[in-house]
Amino acid sequence: MVANLSAAFLPTSCPLLVVKVGSSLLVQPDGNVRRQWLETLVADVSARHKAGQRIVIVTSGAIALGARRLGFEKGGRGSLADAQAAASVGQIVLSGIWAELLDAQSLAAAQMLVTLDDLEDRRRYLNIAATLDRLLGAGAVPVINENDSVATEEIRFGDNDRLAARVAQAAGANGVILLSDVDGLFDRAPHLPGAVLLPTIEKIDGRVRIMVAEGSSSGMGSGGMASKLDAADIATRAGIGLVIASGLRDHPLAALETGAPSTFFAPREGGSARKSWLGGRLTVKGRIRVDAGAIQALMSGSSLLPAGALSVEGEFKRGDVIDISDDDGVAVARGLSEYDAVDAARICGHRSSELADILGTVPRSVLVHRDQLVLL
């Protein structure tokens, strides 16, 4: 057994696994695909599939592949227009490679392209979940990428680490493996003398975030260790274990199972599916600042009452996702607002008995109901 991985998360015992593959692993600096390495990964996927496991692949590489074919500088990331054009060309190549190699293992590849909005909107999120469920039930291997050809700066994940974590939520996966160009999370930048790999992270706190070494050496990807930590936070909050491991070796999944270095982020105790979706959201419409008494009440499982609210920020409507923060702006909870921003601001600091006179209607008694709220 691998010492730093939970037995429930070992690749052979994890019923549904999301595997993310970074650009630096798929594409060489000259823009060509690392085909021989990719064949070993697909062989690993096939072995898992034959053992009864189901795998979802989240793949990068479209922009890098398209940039080479179009002759774009900076790997296609010189501008948003370059990235969109490169992705349009590269995605055809990328999906073709995955389909060909999976077919050689008698596996059907299913392409899905998504944007941030697709997974932040509750209805579209559930549609994606239903599609993934049907594909996996039919024995296909979903191959997912961000739809960079249409995504703008406002609706982009910006990296596939966080996308993989959100996909894992939608698919109901038990684990996520982020294959990268590093062995895992170190206590300082890996190139510094004395850097030590951290095999297990039980909780993502301020101490862990300080350790994060930014970026990768490839220059082709859009993520770094910071994005991987964000992904781990999303996944573990939903009760999903996550591993960061190097994909520079052949057969990376088999290597991980037999003891290759990695960092395992232990899952938290899972809440409801809806609360996991709320906690993993990357965009919010606004914020309500609250006093210390309200924070204590939230921590005890109560709803957010108007009396504990100090101020309202942003433009949001009833049902939009908002953050609840302390007076310094540090978010402590996230939930669905029971009021639009204008009315929420009008009733801040007022007791429930005063709301009808202020609003002129029979009011809802809370700003955010505890059933629609998750602590951060």
What's the helix and strand layout?
Layout lengths: L15 E6 L1 H4 L8 H16 L3 E6 L2 H9 L9 H25 L4 E6 L1 H5 L1 H16 L3 E6 L13 H12 L3 E6 L19 E2 L4 H6 L13 H13 L3 E6 L5 H6 L4 E4 L7 H7 L6 E5 L1 H8 L9 E6 L6 E5 L5 E7 L3 H7 L7 H5 L8 E8 L1
Parallel strand pairs: 1-2, 1-5, 2-4, 3-4, 5-7, 6-8, 9-11
Antiparallel strand pairs: 7-8, 9-10, 11-12, 12-13
Quick rundown:
37% of the residues lie in helices and 19% in strands. By secondary structure, the protein is an alpha/beta fold.
List keywords for this structure.
alpha/beta, elongated, 5-stranded mixed β-sheet, 37% helix, 376 residues
3D structure, described in words:
There is one protein chain. This protein is of the alpha/beta class. The chain has 14 helices and 13 strands. The chain has helices at 23-26, 35-50, 62-70, 80-104, 116-120, 122-137, 160-171, 206-211, 225-237, 252-257, 273-279, 292-299, 341-347, 355-359, and strands at 16-21, 54-59, 109-114, 141-146, 175-180, 200-201, 241-246, 262-265, 286-290, 309-314, 321-325, 331-337, 368-375. The strands form two sheets. The protein has an eight-stranded mixed beta sheet, sandwiched between helices. Helix 6 (122-137) packs across helix 7 (160-171). The protein is elongated, with a radius of gyration of 22 Å. The two termini are 33 Å apart. Mean pLDDT is 86; it is low at 213-222.
